[in-house]
Amino acid sequence: MKNNLLLILQTSEITSENWLSSPGVIGTIVLIFIVLFLGIFIFIKRLNRYVDVLEDNKKDLSEEDFERRLINLDKAEVDHILKARQQGFKDEEKPADTVEAPSKYSGFIKKIIDPENPLFDEKARSTTQIKISKELKQIIVWYLGAGIFWLVFGTLVGQYLGMKFIWPDLDKISWLSFGRLRPVHTNTVFWGWASLAMVGLGHYVVSRTSNREIFNYKWSKIAFWLINSCVFIGNIFLMAGINNGGGEYREYIWPIMALFAIGLIIIFFNFYKTVATRKISEIYISNWFILASLIWTIVLAIIGYFPSYQDGLGETVIQGYYMHQGVGMWFMTFTLGLVYYFLPSALNKPIYSYSLGVLAFWTQMLFYTLIGTHHFVFSPLPWWLQTVAIVFSAGMFIPVFAGTTNFLMTMRGSWNHISKSYVLPFFLVGVVFYFVGSVQGSFQAFRFTNYLWHFTDFNVAHSHMTMYGIITFLMWACIYALLPKITGKEPPQNLVGAHFWLAFIGLIAYMVSLMVGGTLKGLSWIEGNPFIESVILMENYWVWRAVGGTLMFISHIIFAYNFYLMVRKKKKVKHSFLPDRQAQKETLNTQSN
């Protein structure tokens, strides 16, 4: 009773006056500007690179232009050029640290590399190729290929749902209703795209850092089919109206989700046995994050679907735990483990601080486990439980600052290579969004900002800021960093650039529009306006949501095509210059007859 009275007093005191002075609102605005500054920074770097290329093209004659001018030269001009070139070759050799050729006529080298600088993933061509076993390569391609299929399918559903906000009467088919398709979209990109892509990349990291093959590839294949079966059958059931109720991200009924849980158990034992039988003494920190995420998610699946907890307020507590643990302890923890390997590998340098990584790991394990209830602030849940969730949400500043500092310091000195590498921009966006999205989530846990933004479209923006801006961008970075090195095939630069900018600009349009619209909707509710007014004011913001979503979906199509180019097998053409012996015999027999 006391808690209920306190709840009424708290809610009655909240007004829309001076809402801009709230620390959570101010912090969120600052974070949005950080993201916008990031986009401008990358664009300027790319633009400078483009200007340099144009200037180089002006200096260098094209082959056709050179031939045309050569034909039109008279004898005196030819003698002058030859004499100048001969003089250039006779010039004394300059010191080794020179960066200019002695004469523009003296040779044919157009690019001189300073040996003191490390080599990065060049946009033109990656010179590094890694040999791995056929079994490992097959597993990686399987998991990534299936994950990308679910990415395209899941975001196609999301694109269709975005259009329904603009045209609500788009269809009248029960299977395509918003209530059925929305969980299809979320569960597909969660358990289909992100989970399969993470596990596929995890096979490479665990094998590489353990200096041995994966313990059992048959287990990997069994887990592959179990997870894909879970997503396929689960989506059919969701579209048919068979679901687990209102639990967000756990709409699959328990027999179907059991397939996913069994798959995770198999993957965990496979990875654990690989690390346990490693050929080196140390356990690299990536494996800490990967194995911990698997353990937590197995526990999470059991708790989230255990029937005795699913009653009344107990279900609400478990829902907050399940929903936030799924994002933080599965996707975020596993992806951070991947970044601790692929980011230093792409930069050809070690991680900045192993100690910061350990600090980030243990504080992530401590604080993330008790913040789920911040989704239910001002609910009938105990006030002390809500307060604990808010305090631990603020505690998440520690692992986020530690991880972000570690990654940015590892990238220190590499900013000029943003224009040369198509891997680094994805990493940079993912790392910045890791900071922005995580800190913004902590700000949103504060009581006023929670009251302002909860149940509005702002939460959709926040979820895309994290699951898309962090998880998906970092996943793309890891894929682009790995696949060319194990397949020997590079994606076209212009298509990778199109993928990056369409996804990034689409995310910004999607995120900012829903943040602004969600804020206005929350203020409208606080002021006591009729609900329909908040729906009407969202119209233009939903249009921008659809525009951003369309750009993002197009980028996924391009990414899927880039993946195909990186893994496709070229058909071998057999050249037979001499007929085989059987053909010779048949020819001789025919001639003799």
TrEMBL record:
GO molecular-function terms, A-Z: cytochrome-c oxidase activity; heme binding
Residue spans crossing the bilayer: 20-44, 140-161, 190-207, 219-240, 252-272, 284-307, 327-344, 351-371, 383-409, 421-445, 465-483, 495-516, 542-564
Keyword terms: Electron transport, Membrane, Respiratory chain, Transmembrane, Transmembrane helix, Transport
GO annotation terms (biological process): aerobic respiration; electron transport coupled proton transport; respiratory electron transport chain
Domain (Cytochrome oxidase subunit I profile): residue spans on this chain: 336-593
GO CC list: membrane
Record-linked InterPro entries: Cyt_c_oxase-like_su1_dom, Cyt_c_oxase-like_su1_sf, Cyt_C_Oxase_1
Signal peptide: none
Protein name, per record: Cbb3-type cytochrome c oxidase subunit I
Organism expressing this protein natively: Psychroflexus gondwanensis ACAM 44
